[in-house]
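If I may wish for something, please walk me through the protein I am sending here so I can picture the backbone:
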Amino acid sequence: MKILIAGGDGFCGWPTALYLSQKGHEVVIIDSLIRRQWDNELHSNSLTPISSLNERVSRWHELTGRTLKTYIGDLTHYDFLRIVLEETQPDTFVHFAEQRSAPYSMIDREHAVFTQSNNVIGTLNVLYGLKEIAPDCHLIKLGTMGEYGTPNIDIEEGYLTIRHNNREDILPYPKQPGSMYHLSKVHDSHNIMFACQAWGLRATDLNQGVVYGLHTGETMMDPVLINRLDYDAVFGTVLNRFLIQAAIGHDLTIYGAGGQTRGFINIIDTVRCIEIATINPAHPGDFRVFNQFTEEFSVLDLAEKVKNVATEEGINAVIRHLPNPRTEKEEHYYRANNTKLRDLGLEPHLLNQQVLRAILHTVNRYKDRAHLRNVLPAVSWK
């Protein structure tokens, strides 16, 4: 297939591009490179050294003979997007190209406005572009489990059967997003659902859990292909952040009680889920939702796991609770369904000591690149 990956220079997009290219698909990358600019804005960096996109793409071609075509530009610029779609005529459009950090969206008014305008307008442009130029193209949109919040009932995959006043209907699952970022993803979901209903587009919304890990088979082929590893309190996910804190001798900092529970997924499974959605496309007019995670853990669970593997590696890791900078439930019911991707063939790579140890070894290798001031929270919801 011809697959266009928006955000193909990012943490999820880059390994997905390599994986699908290796599988024989014709892969095209769109990226504005703004993620690299945010590192400069926040005085942060990827713990792993990241080569330029041109260097990455050239090295991939040298190693495999496969070509990754790239377009540098922004989805919020419709004229640019229209040219890309006209030139590529993709079978599948994989959409990673959004500002994906809840803390970044909560820094101040400007960052909230940017997050919502960038994410919502970019996705609206994609929908209109597909309608106008490639109406048969299958849109695979990366959503987030954070759209659901933490309801006191089981979380279904996108939809819920409702009985009210002796009537019954299947409706979109109620959304309780916890940040301006998560709100933008809810708006995306509503816009995509409308476009499918009104225009007959086909779309799959992958409500992804927190992604952990670093390597895929393709990113390990050469140092130039290595994936980024975020550790700061704005873009660093909780598990990677704990591992880096352990490596540099910092306390493992838990926000509040630590009972916050979420779905998690290995980056290896992320790229496989994209492949599954690609080769099993939605039907015209269908907006389907898959919950893309493999396990559930509380923050305290993860801290204990990291502490244990650190101890085995001779590191004395100490767990410390901090006042929670976020507005969220710290103890709550959490049970989410995630059967649709498994039914289509996903075989999960589960979190174990070996996986944690492999990430910790990589972190130890590059820990001198860490800016220590960035490992504590600096953004408040309140």
Residues 109-133 form the longest helix (25 residues). The radius of gyration is 20 Å. Residues 351 and 367 are 22 Å apart (CA to CA).
